[in-house]
Amino acid sequence: MNRQPDTPTLDVRDLRHHFFLDRGRLEAVNGVSFTIAPGEILGIIGESGCGKSITARSILKLESPPGRIVSGEVRFQTAEREMVDICTL
Question: pTM of the entire structure?
Answer without folding.
Answer: 0.84
